[in-house]
From TrEMBL:
Protein's name according to its UniProt entry: Phytanoyl-CoA dioxygenase
TM regions (residue ranges): none
Naturally occurring in which organism (per UniProt): Rotaria magnacalcarata
Matching InterPro entries: Phytyl_CoA_dOase-like
Gene3D superfamilies per UniProt: q2cbj1_9rhob like domain
Length: 351
């Protein structure tokens, strides 16, 4: 008989419009940053408001459509009839509403990564301003109210392997995987995201997204099990039988409702306003709900991590730097003039 205690999901504070409580940060040292960090530690996530300006949200939505139209090969933004399954299979991971297969490298997606308020949000939660930004993709969920077949898959997952996380004695596997990255494939950037090391070392890993339009529960999008980050090690130990469904070294674990109905019942949609960032602890069971509304859901995904992480050897940092410079050039971005000093640091081009 299991002696483990039962997980009690937390109730999330919301405002009168149904949006989850958010924090506005003026800088890394402001008193609200400590309050936001305490909220993150308690709930496993935090919403930071006003990270992108309304103009930046609109420009980024336009960029998402440019990317979609480049994938499908014709203009579709203004004709919803064309947002059909046949065309959409060309846009990325259609079941999860992800635009792009590996990471994306447009001018807008790259320049967004040097947004000072985004840096402040991650720095406040990570407890250091000396951080690097990853390279990732966009999310776009088509409206489904009149087209249920366009729905994404409501899912819960972890961008890590919870059983490796609790069973490993040290971070040697993480150091090996990250040390072997050559950054010659767009998928390498996703591999970089999903190596949190082991529970005994206990690093904090923080993922995030910015919602580009107001995002209510009926629009679908990001949801999570509040407070799960503190329960992950016990949960992984109690659910070892599920590990057989995955490869030993898999670092993306999506779990169907039939195996964890209690977590699907406990998961909450993190409704937030346009321009808000949602940051979450990588140990938190999370994913997305399907859209049920007449509005698209738009988002950009992130991870940031301390620049002085032991796995960032000089050799790896140099390969990463060269790969980013090549991509910046392809995106018509001159690091000297288009990136800010903060941007050059975040991209790992200067210390
Ligand atoms: O907001 C979403 O669409 C899901 C994001 C997510 O699960 C992730 O980035 O790991």
């Amino acid at each position: 008989m299991s002696t483990s205690s039962q997980f009690q999901p937390l109730v999330i504070p919301r405002d009168s419009d149904g949006f989850v409580k958010s924090f506005t940060l003026s800088n890394y040292n402001c008193p609200t940053a400590s309050t936001a960090r305490a909220f993150f530690q308690e709930y496993g996530f935090v919403v930071i408001a006003n990270v992108y300006t309304p103009e930046q949200c609109n420009d980024t939505i336009s960029d998402i459509w440019n990317v979609i139209e480049s994938f499908v090969g014709k203009p579709v933004q203004n004709n919803e009839q064309l947002w059909n399954q046949k065309l959409w299979t060309r846009t990325g991971i259609i079941e999860e509403g992800i635009i792009g297969g590996g990471s994306l490298w447009t001018r807008q997606i790259l320049l967004n990564r040097q947004t000072p308020a985004l840096h402040t949000a991650f720095a406040s939660v990570l407890g250091t301003e000396n951080i690097l930004v990853n390279q990732d993709r966009y999310g776009m969920f088509r409206p489904t109210k009149e087209h249920p077949e366009r729905s994404t898959m409501t899912n819960l997952h972890l961008d890590m392997n919870p059983w490796l996380y609790i069973d490993q004695e040290d971070n040697s596997e993480q150091l090996k995987v990250l040390g072997e990255l050559n950054y010659d494939s767009d998928d390498d950037w996703i591999t970089e995201n999903n190596e949190p090391g082991c529970s005994k070392v206990g690093e904090l890993h923080v993922q995030g997204l910015v919602n580009l339009a107001d995002n209510l529960e009926e629009d679908g999008g990001f949801w999570l099990v509040p407070g799960f980050h503190k329960y992950l090690t016990q949960w992984a130990d109690d659910h070892r039988h599920l590990s057989k469904l995955y490869g030993h070294f898999d670092q993306f674990i999506m779990i169907d409702r039939e195996y964890i109905p209690e977590l699907y019942d406990a998961a909450c949609h993190i409704s937030s306003r346009a321009g808000s960032a949602i940051l979450w602890d990588q140990r938190t069971m999370h994913g997305s709900r399907a859209n049920r509304s007449v509005r698209p859901r738009y988002a950009q995904f992130f991870k940031m991590f301390p620049a002085d992480h032991p796995a960032m050897t000089p050799e790896r940092a140099e390969k990463r730097r060269k790969a980013i410079i090549t991509k910046l050039q392809a995106g018509n971005i001159d690091p000297a003039t288009d990136l800010t000093p903060l941007g050059r640091k975040l991209f790992g081009l200067s210390t």
